[in-house]
Amino acid sequence: MTPLVQAILDGLLVGGVYGVVAVGLSLVFGVLGIVNFAQAEFLMLGMYVAWFAWSFLGLDPMLGAVLALAAGFMLGYVIQRLLVQRVMSSDHVAQIFLTVGLLAVMENGALMIFGPDFRSVQTDAQMISYRLGPFFISAVYLKAFVAAVAISVALWALLNRTWLGRAIRATAQDAPAAQLFGINTRWIYGIAFGLGAALTAFGGGIVLSFAPAYPTIGANYVVLMFTVVVLGGLGSVMGALLGGLLVGIVQSASTLVLPIQLQNLALFVIFIAVLALRPEGLLGKAAK
Amino acid sequence: MMIELENVTGGYGHRTIIEGIDLLVAEGETVAILGVNTAGKTTLIRAISGALPHQKGHIRFEGRDISDDPPHARVSSGLACVPEGRHIFPQMSVVENLMVGAYHRRSSALDEDLEAAFTLFPRLKERRRQMAGTLSGGEQQMVSFCRAMMARPKLLLMDEPSHGLAPMMVEEVHSAINDVNSRGIAVLLVEQNVSSALRVASRGYVLDHGRITLEGTAGELADDPFVKKTYLGI
Ligand SMILES: Nc1ncnc2c1ncn2[C@@H]1O[C@H](COP(=O)(O)OP(=O)(O)OP(=O)(O)O)[C@@H](O)[C@H]1O
Ligand SMILES: [Mg+2]
């Protein structure tokens, strides 16, 4: 029993981070109706921002994540206004070409600029873990989880308690009607894409506290992000956050029965099962 | 003049739907637009609200040409819309829907306007926290109407507000229009139910195949043999 509870605990902590990483993908889809295949590249970008902040400014990755948030927002906003806006009303093929192209450009750009090296951080938290009865909680994962919860609460408050948030949700639900009431939906699309990129980049900053950055790390997270988002219901913000927790737990618990190399197998199985049995996600769209 | 359309032509893509529309609404006046299905009534409303992508001609609001204003800029001039098919935000509560109506003002002094809406339709007050998508058709229409009123418009565009409603609800909607009128707000009303539209409106236009074929006071239109035959079934 103890190993299972320990695994669930570990999974829960890291699952919070997965939720933040994936919520950006869900937000972008929910508001713009675009599946952004380049979304995981903002995670990579966020990791590099946090790494440079750590290595040159001596900032803890949690603070680096805040810089990553800002950088992700700015880049996302510009990319939407300059590129994504042009395919907003095009067919899916054009949208897929654009975002997959973006993925290739960002990944190879990172390879050219940063080189192929793995870059990791060393922090005190990595050495510490807390004892809770028979269980251990690593300080890095605990910090990561707290940061993830904090940004999730901030996102929730933004979407539900501010005029901007109402405008974003109104645009997601009925853009022509939103426009009738003075919401500049084109601008909202830019903001929402920027916000999505920012959240994923913030997630990247947190991930850096326990995993190294390298140019193709995005590829490692793509399946995970899509699983989380599909699980929570594509376009649902709360769904993505909860989906992250669930995926974290399943992934962690699966290591008890499967060799670590097959960790992603459990994810694939869930991914396909959800698509087959409940394509609208476990929570449906109710939480949009 | 509240709003003035001069030679407005518009449609979708290269397909022209409405052509050479001249139309006036004076301050505080209620004007009806009548026409059979596909006459182009909704297209005309969308031309005024700015939602129609391609259009020619001039639309002046209180004398200012708003033809080139994007739709989201028109609401702050004093134009609000109860669109065809309600278009409420289904996954927002009733209160949030109403707040979006006040988005262009973004003022925190919303409480009195919310209170006014709830006084008009007490049923919405009971359901204020409910997701608007789960309301009945009639209740959604109330939300759509109150959302437009939250914008504090000078001119209210209404596209078939009583469509699909039970007779009692139709009465409720029309008494709401009278209430709006008594506050000095002008209304441009599209209605299928011609006899009741001519009771609330003081003037009307008949739209046929995208052109205005007839105009006059409500009394004149109600007595017109063509209107009688086509719409009133007399
Ligand atoms: N988005 C659109 N794209 C292309 N054509 C459209 C679009 N909307 C409406 N039309 C066409 O424009 C014409 C007029 O439609 P419109 O909705 O303005 O009529 P209406 O008078 O409001 O009819 P109803 O009484 O059924 O609401 C119709 O032939 C319709 O097919
Ligand atoms: Mg219509």
From TrEMBL, chain A:
Protein's membrane topology: Multi-pass membrane protein
Annotated Gene Ontology cellular component terms: plasma membrane
Top-level taxon: Bacteria
Keyword presence, Electron transport: no
Positions of transmembrane segments: 12-35, 96-115, 135-159, 187-211, 223-249, 256-277
Lineage: Bacteria, Pseudomonadati, Pseudomonadota, Alphaproteobacteria, Rhodobacterales
Species of provenance: Allosediminivita pacifica
UniProt subcellular location: Cell membrane
Entry-linked CDD domains: TM_PBP1_LivH_like
Keyword Membrane found: yes
Pfam families: BPD_transp_2
Protein name as annotated: Amino acid/amide ABC transporter membrane protein 1 (HAAT family)
One biological process term in Gene Ontology: amino acid transport
InterPro entries xrefs: ABC_transp_permease, BCAA_transport_permease
Keywords tagged on the record: Amino-acid transport, Cell membrane, Membrane, Transmembrane, Transmembrane helix, Transport
Similarity comment text for this entry: Belongs to the binding-protein-dependent transport system permease family. LivHM subfamily.
Gene Ontology molecular function: any one: transmembrane transporter activity
From TrEMBL, chain B:
Gene Ontology molecular-function annotations: ATP binding; ATP hydrolysis activity; branched-chain amino acid transmembrane transporter activity
Listed GO biological process terms: L-amino acid transport
Keyword Nucleotide-binding: yes
Top-level taxon of origin: Bacteria
Domain ABC transporter intervals: 3-234
PROSITE patterns: ABC_TRANSPORTER_1, ABC_TRANSPORTER_2
Keywords tagged on the record: Amino-acid transport, ATP-binding, Nucleotide-binding, Transport
Transmembrane helix recorded as keyword: no
Family: Belongs to the ABC transporter superfamily.
Annotated PANTHER family: HIGH-AFFINITY BRANCHED-CHAIN AMINO ACID TRANSPORT ATP-BINDING PROTEIN LIVF (PTHR43820:SF4)
Protein name, per record: Amino acid/amide ABC transporter ATP-binding protein 2 (HAAT family)
Organism listed in the record: Allosediminivita pacifica
